[in-house]
């Protein structure tokens, strides 16, 4: 699943967005300890989905295409995941179409709507704010 790498990479990118800077996949990979190849796949999908833009040259860099407030989790999920709920094997739909239909109506359609409703309300900016809270909470205070 490409989704965790995409979110992590976007959070790293959002820190540079305010400065108008592009960030390289290599620097994100080093900062987060994620495979460069895995991140390149994620950012390729994000670019195709209109979430990031890139520069060309020896050091290809990426930047958010919109502000962190305008990018929702649903946007990211739609860009990197083709479908959350893949159809069953063809043999099921051919030999037992009622099973396919029941699973879709009773489970998958409802789950898809619930996920969409939850993720369209959460922005990259909110995630970034939460990251900052956790960074501040991890420090130790020494008194002399």
What keyword list fits this structure?
144 residues, mainly alpha, Arc Repressor Mutant, subunit A, 3-stranded antiparallel beta sheet, 7 helices, elongated
Question: What does this entry look like structurally?
Answer:
It is a single chain. The chain has 144 residues and is mainly alpha-helical. The protein has a single domain (3-137), classed as Winged helix-like DNA-binding domain superfamily/Winged helix DNA-binding domain (Arc Repressor Mutant, subunit A, Orthogonal Bundle). Helices cover 60% and strands 6% of the residues. The chain has a three-stranded antiparallel sheet. A hairpin with a 6-residue loop joins strand 2 (52-54) and strand 3. The longest helix is centred in the last third of the chain and has 23 residues, at 97-119. The chain is elongated. The model has no long low-confidence stretch (mean pLDDT 83).
Fold topology:
Blueprint lengths: L2 H15 L5 E2 H8 L3 H13 L3 E3 L6 E4 L8 H8 L9 H6 L1 H23 L4 H14 L7
Antiparallel strand pairs: 1-3, 2-3
Helix pairs in contact: 1-2, 1-3, 1-7, 2-3
Please work out how many helical segments DSSP would assign: 7
For the CA atoms, what is the radius of gyration?
A: 19 Å
* Spatial order of the strands forming the largest sheet: 1-3-2
Question: Which spans of ≥5 residues are poorly predicted at pLDDT below 50?
Answer: none
For the report, how would you describe the main beta sheet?
3 strands, antiparallel
CATH homologous superfamily assignment:
Winged helix-like DNA-binding domain superfamily/Winged helix DNA-binding domain
Distance between the termini: 48 Å
CATH class placement:
Mainly Alpha
Write the CATH fold name: Arc Repressor Mutant, subunit A
Overall SS class = mainly alpha
Q: Helical content, roughly?
A: 55-70%
